[in-house]
Write the structure tokens for this entry.
Amino acid sequence: MAAPIETGGTVMAKGSYILVLQLDHTVDDLQVGRLGIFSFPVGYYLYVGSAFGAGGLSARLRHHERREKSRLHWHIDYLRAHAHLHEIWTVSGPLRMECRWCATLASAPDVSIPAVGFGSRDTGCRSHLFHLSRPPRSLMLSHILLTDITAADGPLEILVEVHSFDPGT
């Protein structure tokens, strides 16, 4: 694994993550930046992202934990204003896992894509947002996170973490 970058005593691990959001009411006609207007039904949403820039996972996850933001920057910020943060699954390490995870989720049964192009401007994936009518099982998420890390990637050290939140966040 690439060593975390230390800046002023703060360790900034780089990696990929999946936000697990819960929407307990339908949100109709939500303007998502320049992407367009979408409706989001009740259910659970998995948003796939990465944090390889300045601040790493720590800074990116702090951003996503805040429901209210003074400026909406990413597509997920528009939905996050309406959804509860349930969990965040992270994999710290040198591999960019976003597109692998998106492909796995796109082919999973009972998973749909509510907004084509959501969060995927910089990757070319069909979407980085996925909808499930029921809560995702931990086994499903751990399978997605770990199955796509193969021997072809070479010897790796990774750190997998799950962060859980109160239903009101």
Summary: The chain has a mean pLDDT of 84.
